[in-house]
Design goal:
15% strand; AKR; eight-stranded parallel sheet; oxidoreductase; Oxidoreductase of aldo/keto reductase family, subgroup 1; NAD(P)_OxRdtase_dom_sf; NADP; 41% helix; 10 helices; two-stranded antiparallel ribbon; globular; alpha/beta; TIM Barrel
């Protein structure tokens, strides 16, 4: 088994594994088995969401894992159509019912959905749930600096995490700097960028020097940036391969060369407009 992932300290004093397993597009019928398998090879962070439709499988996998519940970090998210204060309280309650867990370690607002203009009230609801002990930590996903500034100004509570699309073609340097100023952990979704950078000279050279695969090099790049990263796979051998990126050490020059692949390409929606 690969050594456990390093832990990142959150701004609320709690810790979170740096490397995790993302459950987007993992079929419900396979989720429990994959979570159990992932725990066996060393994963301790599982990133879920109500939208993914597999919270029941996630909870089942956690309950059947061969490690204590306290050793596993579970994330879920509130979807756009459940935003609003009372609706968010109900949405998290429903997630807990599907998960059949006593708590969720981290709940995120899935998108700011600015046209709805409900993300501040949604944030107030998550803060209340944290204060009541229903949720351990609270954060956001796909938030831009103006969204972060607004929720902090209106509530005084800084998210522990902002989970955003981040890969070599979209390294999010300015947003990462903004997070660092506020003590927010940057968490990368679609970290491999749909493999678009695998053939680049920067990735190939690093792979040749380290003996790692292109995927492992890019995951190691995220780790070198200090990001939490949540790759997804439904293949047990790929789960283990991804986790072994923890053993790959890149030079500062290699990290910079991969970041220089930036071209602004997004694989997902634009947070400015997606609601």
């Amino acid at each position: 088994m690969t050594p456990p992932s390093p832990l990142l300290t959150l701004n609320d004093g709690r810790t979170m594994p740096q490397m995790g397993f993302g459950l987007w597009q993992v079929p419900e019928r396979e989720t429990a088995r994959l979570v159990v398998d992932a725990v066996k090879v060393g994963y301790r962070l599982f990133d879920g969401a109500a939208l993914y439709g597999n919270e029941r499988g996630l909870g089942e996998g956690v309950r059947h894992a061969e490690v204590p519940r306290d050793d596993i970090f579970v994330t879920t998210k509130v979807w756009n159509d459940r935003q609003g204060y009372d609706s968010t309280l109900r949405a998290v309650e429903e997630s807990l019912e599907r998960l059949v867990l006593d708590r969720v370690d981290l709940v995120l607002i899935h998108w700011p959905a600015p046209a709805r203009d409900l993300y501040v009230e949604t944030w107030r609801a998550l803060v209340r749930l944290r204060e009541e002990g229903v949720v351990t930590s609270v954060g956001v996903s796909n938030f831009l600096p103006e969204h972060l500034d607004r929720i902090v100004a209106e509530t005084g509570v800084v998210p522990v995490v902002n989970q955003v699309e981040l890969h070599p073609e979209l390294p999010q340097g300015e947003l990462r700097a903004r997070h660092a100023e506020s003590g927010i952990v940057t968490q990368s979704w679609t970290p491999l960028g749909q493999s678009r950078s695998f053939g680049s000279a920067a990735v190939r050279k690093a792979a040749e020097r380290t003996g790692a695969s292109p995927a492992q090099v890019i995951l190691a790049w995220h780790l070198a940036l200090g990001c939490s990263v949540i790759p997804r796979s439904t293949k047990p051998e790929r789960l283990e391969e991804n986790l072994r990126a923890l053993e790959v050490e890149l030079t500062p020059e290699e990290v910079a060369a991969i970041e220089a692949l930036e071209n602004g390409h997004r694989t997902g929606p634009d947070p400015h407009t997606f609601s």
